[in-house]
Write a structure and sequence with these properties.
heterodimer, A: about 325 residues, MetI-like fold, 13 helices, about 0% strand, globular, B: about 325 residues, alpha/beta, eight-stranded mixed β-sheet, four-stranded antiparallel β-sheet, 12 strands, Peptide/nickel transport system permease protein (chain A), MetI-like_sf (chain A), transmembrane (chain A)
Chain lengths: ~325, ~325
C-alpha cells in the first residue's frame, strides 16, 4: 500500500505539468490586454505599454511560459497583477474559507443524503421511496443561483433569521459564525445531497438482492443491521466515487454560491480574477484546484481498499475481482 | 405426533405482481422428526426452495405472501410469531445454508466476523469468547489453521472451504434443524462428497435434523431417511428412502428415478426424460398438476385433483391410480423422449 501511494504521488507530476500547460494557453486566449483593463478606459497608450513591459506581457509566449514553469518549480505561483500580492498568499487566504463552507455542505449532504437513500432502498416502491426520489430529482435539477436567492428572500429578508451575505468571524461569537454559514452551506449542499441519495439507493438495491444478504437474515440479524451493516458496506464503492467527485468540486470553490452570499472563498477569487483579466491568479487557482482533484482521487482510491478487501493495488493482476 | 420437530400443514405461498398471482407453493405437507434427514426433491420451480424460505419466513414480501397453512416447530406455529420472536429462532434453532458458497458469504467482512456475528446474535458472550468459539467451529468443519483463517476474507477461501465456513455459521448455535438448499450443487464432485460427509458427522454429534433440498437423487440416497417429491408447488409423494426408490407410486417419481444416470446406461445412450414442462402456476390447476406430462392420465385426472393419501404406513401419494398394473407398465420406457 505504501509503495502504491508513493507511486501515485509521483504520477501527480506529469498531471500537474499538463494542467499547467493547458491553463497557460487558455488564459492567454482570453481577449483583452490585462494592462489596459487594469488601468481603466482613461489610461494613455504610454501607460499601458509601460505596464505591459513591466508585467512581461511583451515577451514571446515561450519565454513567458518558461518563466512561469521555473516559478512553479520554486513554489512560486506568480504575483497577482491586480492585488499586488503573491498568488500563493491569495489562495492561502481564501482557501480556508472555502474549506469551511465545503465541509459544512458536505456534512449536511452526507447526513441527509445517505440515510435518505438507504431508507428509499429498504422500502423500495413505497410512497416513502417515491417521495425521496422526487425530492432528490428536484434537488439535482435545482438551479443553485435561484435556490440561494429564494433562501435569502425567505429566511433573511422575510424572517430575518440569518444574515443574507458575508462570512462571520469568530470574534462575534460562535453563534453568529454558524448563522452566517447556514444558508450558503444548505445552498451548496443541495446537489451533492440529492446525488448521494440517488447513488446510495441504486447501489444498495443492487446489493440487497444478493445471496449473502439472505444469509445475514437467516442468521437472525435484525433488518436495521442487515441494511446498515451488510448492505451499506457493500454499496459503498460507488458512493465513494461520487463522494470524491463532490469533494473535489466543493473544494474547487463554489463559484455561484460564493457569489450569491459574498463568501470570500476560492470561487469568488477566480470570478474576480477573470473579471480583471488577472490571468496570473486564474492560472494559479486553476492549477491549485487541479492538484486538489488529483489528491482527492488518490484518497478515494485508498479508501476503496478500506471498504472492499478484494481491491488489490499491490499486484498488477488485481485481487478477487 | 408429539415427537415431530417440524410439521408443515397445507402451506400455500403466492407471489403477486400487478398482472398475475403465482401460486409457487400450493398445499405442501411434511413432517420431520428430531435427528431425521428429509430430502425434498423436484425439478426447478417445483417450490422446494420457496417452501424452505417460507419456513425461515424469509420470503420477500411484497411480492411474496404465505397465504395459508401452519408451520409447527416444536409445537409452536411459526406463522403466529412476531418478527422479533422469529429472529430469535432464525439462525439459532433453525439454520440454513445455500446453494452457492461463492455468493452466500458477505465479501467485505472476514469469515470470522461473520461467524462471530451469528454466535453473538443468539448468545450473550463477549467478542473474545465468541472468537474462540468461532475458531473451534472452523476446526470442527475441517478448516486447517483456523486461528489464521478466521481473519481471512471469503475471496481468500476455495469453494469447498467457503461452504465449510457457511456450515460453521449455520451450526454455530447448535440449531435443532438445518435447512440445506442444494448445498453441494455448485461444488465439484470430490468436494461434494466431503461436504456431505461433514454434514453427516456433524448431524450425529449435534443431533440436528436436516432438510436437504436437492435435485440429485444420489445425494438423497446417501443422506436421507425420508423423501418428499414436489411437483408444481405441491407434494406428490413422500415416504422413506427405501420405499420411494423401490416402490414409487406416482408417475412423476418414476420419471425422476428413470432420468438418473445408472451403471446400466450405455455410452452415448440417450437418458430418459420427462417430456413437456410443468404447468403455468399463474393459472389455477383444476385436476392433477402432472396430467399434461403423464403417460397414464385419464379423464378423471383432468377434472379432479387427486388426494394426498397414505397408501401404506408412512407412504403418501397423490395419484388417482396407485395400482400395480400401471406400475408394471412403466418398465416399457414410457418416459423416453
Amino acid at each position: 500500500m505504501g509503495k502504491y501511494i508513493i507511486k501515485r504521488l509521483f504520477d501527480l507530476l506529469p498531471t500537474v505539468f499538463v494542467v499547467a500547460v493547458i491553463v497557460f494557453i487558455i488564459t492567454r486566449l482570453i481577449p483583452g490586454n490585462p494592462a489596459a483593463v487594469m488601468l481603466g478606459p482613461t489610461a494613455s497608450v504610454e501607460d499601458i505599454e509601460k505596464l505591459t513591459t513591466q508585467l512581461g506581457l511583451d515577451q514571446p509566449l515561450y519565454k513567458q511560459f518558461l518563466d512561469y514553469l521555473l516559478g512553479l518549480l520554486q513554489g512560486d505561483f506568480g504575483t497577482s497583477l491586480s492585488y499586488n500580492q503573491p498568488v500563493a498568499q491569495l489562495i492561502m487566504e481564501r482557501f480556508p474559507n472555502t474549506v469551511i463552507l465545503a465541509l459544512a455542505a458536505l456534512v449536511i449532504a452526507l447526513l441527509i443524503g445517505i440515510p435518505a437513500g438507504m431508507i428509499s432502498a429498504a422500502r423500495q416502491n413505497s410512497a416513502l421511496d417515491y417521495g425521496v426520489m422526487l425530492v432528490s430529482l428536484l434537488g439535482v435539477s435545482m438551479p443553485i443561483f435561484w435556490l440561494g436567492v429564494m433562501l435569502v428572500l425567505f429566511f433573511s429578508v422575510n424572517l430575518g433569521w440569518f444574515p443574507a451575505t458575508g462570512m462571520g468571524t469568530l470574534d462575534d461569537g460562535l453563534l453568529s459564525y454558524i448563522k452566517h454559514l447556514i444558508l450558503p452551506s444548505i445552498t451548496l449542499a443541495t446537489i451533492p445531497m440529492a446525488t448521494f441519495a440517488r447513488i446510495t439507493r441504486s447501489s444498495m438495491l443492487e446489493v440487497i438482492s444478493q445471496e449473502y444478504i439472505k444469509t445475514a437474515r437467516a442468521k437472525g440479524v435484525a433488518e436495521f443491521w442487515v441494511i446498515s451493516k451488510h448492505v451499506l458496506k457493500n454499496a459503498l464503492t460507488p458512493i465513494l466515487t461520487v463522494l470524491g467527485m463532490q469533494i473535489s468540486m466543493l473544494l474547487g470553490g463554489a463559484v455561484l454560491t460564493e457569489t450569491i452570499f459574498s463568501w470570500p472563498g476560492m470561487g469568488r477569487l477566480i470570478v474576480d480574477a477573470i473579471d480583471k483579466r488577472d490571468f496570473v491568479v486564474v492560472q494559479g487557482t486553476v492549477l491549485f484546484i487541479a492538484i486538489i482533484f488529483v489528491l482527492v482521487n488518490l484518497l478515494v482510491d485508498i479508501l476503496y481498499k478500506v471498504v472492499n478487501p478484494r481491491v488489490n493495488y499491490e499486484s498488477s493482476k488485481g485481487g478477487g475481482q | 405426533m408429539s415427537e415431530n420437530l417440524l410439521s408443515i400443514e397445507d402451506l400455500d405461498v403466492e407471489f403477486r405482481s400487478s398482472s398475475s398471482t403465482v401460486k409457487a407453493v400450493n398445499g405442501v405437507n411434511l413432517t420431520l422428526k428430531k435427528k431425521e434427514t428429509l430430502g425434498i426433491v423436484g425439478e426447478s420451480g417445483s417450490g422446494k426452495s420457496v417452501t424452505a424460505t417460507a419456513l425461515m419466513q424469509l420470503i420477500p414480501s411484497p411480492p411474496g405472501k404465505i397465504s395459508n397453512g401452519k408451520i409447527l416447530f416444536n409445537g409452536i406455529d411459526l406463522l403466529t410469531l412476531s418478527k422479533k420472536e422469529m429472529r430469535s429462532i432464525r439462525g439459532n434453532e433453525i439454520a440454513m445454508i445455500f446453494q452457492d458458497p461463492m455468493t452466500s458469504l458477505n465479501p467485505v467482512f472476514t469469515v470470522g466476523n461473520q461467524i462471530i456475528e451469528a454466535i453473538r446474535q443468539h448468545k450473550k458472550i463477549s467478542k473474545k469468547e465468541a472468537r474462540l468459539e468461532a475458531i473451534a467451529m472452523l476446526k470442527t468443519v475441517g478448516i486447517p489453521e483456523p486461528e489464521k483463517r478466521i481473519d481471512m476474507y471469503p475471496h481468500e477461501f476455495s469453494g469447498g472451504m467457503r461452504q465449510r465456513a457457511m456450515i460453521a455459521i449455520a451450526l454455530s448455535c447448535n440449531p435443532k434443524l438445518l435447512i440445506a438448499d442444494e448445498p453441494t450443487t455448485a461444488l465439484d464432485v470430490t468436494v461434494q462428497a466431503q461436504i456431505l460427509e461433514l454434514m453427516k458427522d456433524l448431524q450425529q454429534t449435534n443431533d440436528t435434523a436436516i432438510i436437504m433440498i436437492t435435485h440429485d437423487l444420489g445425494v438423497v440416497w446417501e443422506m436421507c431417511d425420508n423423501i418428499i417429491v414436489m411437483y408444481a408447488g405441491t407434494t406428490v409423494e413422500s415416504g422413506s428412502v427405501e420405499t420411494i426408490f423401490k416402490n414409487p407410486l406416482h408417475p412423476y417419481t418414476w420419471g425422476l428415478l428413470e432420468s438418473q444416470i445408472t451403471t446400466d446406461v450405455q455410452h452415448n445412450e440417450k437418458l430418459p426424460a420427462i417430456p413437456g414442462s410443468p404447468p403455468d402456476l399463474r393459472k389455477p390447476v383444476l385436476g392433477c398438476p402432472f396430467v399434461d406430462r403423464c403417460p397414464y392420465s385419464e379423464e378423471v385426472c383432468h377434472t379432479k385433483k387427486p388426494e394426498y393419501i397414505e397408501v401404506e404406513p408412512g407412504h403418501f401419494a397423490a395419484c388417482h391410480f396407485q395400482h400395480e398394473t400401471s406400475r408394471l407398465e412403466k418398465k416399457e420406457g414410457m418416459f423416453v423422449d
